[in-house]
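Notes to self after the call with IL:
- keep both proteins in one doc
- input above output, always
- annotate only the second one for now

Protein 1:
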Amino acid sequence: MTRNGKIILVVVVIAILAAGAWGFGLFDHGAATVEEEPVLRYIVNNLNDITTIDIALEKGFFEEEGIKVENVGVAGGGAASIQAIASGSADIGNAAMPAYVNSIAAGTKIKVIYGGPAMAHAGDPGYQLIVREDSGINSARDLVGKTIAMGARGAMWEYSAREYLRQAGLSVDQVTILIVPPPQHEQVLKSSQVDVVVGGQPIADNILEGGGTRALTNLYNILGEKGSSYGFGSIVRQDLIEKNPELVKKLVATYVKTDQWTEANPEEARKIVAAILEKREQNPVIAKYWKPIHLANYGQLSDENVQYWLDWFIQDGKIKEGEIKPSDVYTNEFNPYYK
């Protein structure tokens, strides 16, 4: 081999070794150590629930913040959504505060990072208890011995009914609860398989418009303006907060931006709701029942808001006084409006 040939061979070997060193991270310089943001897996609560995350995906707001999100399926209720996130098969999702408190009381390492829009307000009654027009059910006391259908236990469906009964001095043990997927609520009610269904928009409104039914009460009437202003929320696992707080900050910023846009553009938001329903092979026509949202305090929660729900569990004997603090449940630290 010539001298020049030896030099070329040495250069090639050095180049190969250097490439391997970069590949194995032996040289810790610049772009070689930059990690891409992880893809956040979103678990849908229910097919007919259109949330902040759904609208953000449709509008491209996550991409604007540099966040990658993929849909990994439908949970079938808030408790199931939490379980999917806690187990690591999903990363982000939504549920209601009772489901969160239940899970945290059981030791689940999650945190509510965003309160989101009001559960109910003057323009949206929230969850409704619906009965047949001729049922003779006119008060909570008339529910004793009756069967109530709802999408899942341990979530807002159940706690709407529980609180309505409690205010009348009654217990949920005095009724029978049957788990029925929301799209089947109208069928089981009108066929007298159940006496009451608990549902939210848009399905509840569709049932009422179909005739032969009426609303017994609703979440806004049960909880009042103060109680119904907060109660939903978005969660992540504690380990995501610890490992990637900047990503969580971007996530919450996207949620706030989305809800501000939705509140300011209700008619355009309604069209997006219809598009989402169609993609899920649901009836897009029921988007007409979608109600404009109300976002209070940029989606930030307070100790008072969360203690309201903790007190429910204390009254029911499910947790002890002081066992869970509001700060164990939520944080506002990632909200861009937090001071």
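Protein 2 (the one to annotate):
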Amino acid sequence: MPPDPYIYISGSCLAPNKETVLTKLWDWTKNTSSLPFENRTSASLICHLRKDMQGIVRTLETDFPELQIKEYHGKSDLMEKTHDFSNIEESWKDVDLVAYTSTLKIGVSCTNPKFKRAFCLFNSYIETNARTNQMLFCMRCIKDYICHIEQRSSNIPITEEGLF
């Protein structure tokens, strides 16, 4: 029986707060960066908000410079995205962490077995979550998800500008 406050669903974990996801991501990053490259597994970081994702990536890059991170969002370099997404298997073969917003308007299918985990920070808007699920499940080999869904007291939707 898993300990509270987690809710486990078939290899996945619904976290009670954002800090729990970030702690798990930090632990994974610390462990992964200490391993030789050939023994590493890869993970995805999926955030609804671009600024959250960018802040997390900057912190990880500063604290773990040996980690290979790819980052994608609506304001990412279009040429880099086009190049990388034309052959994901090749572009991501040496990557430890792929970070992206859940609203990237590109379909990506990755079958690389190194990608086993996903760390997700979501909001509670149905439209955004539908796109998130589409992106998340295109990462075919992910077996372990830890997600937090932010509950907002306001019904005012987040603007597209904030998402991308």
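Annotation: Helices lie at 18-33, 50-63, 78-86, 88-91, 126-136, 160-163. The beta strands are 7-9, 12-14, 42-47, 69-72, 97-101, 115-122, 144-149.
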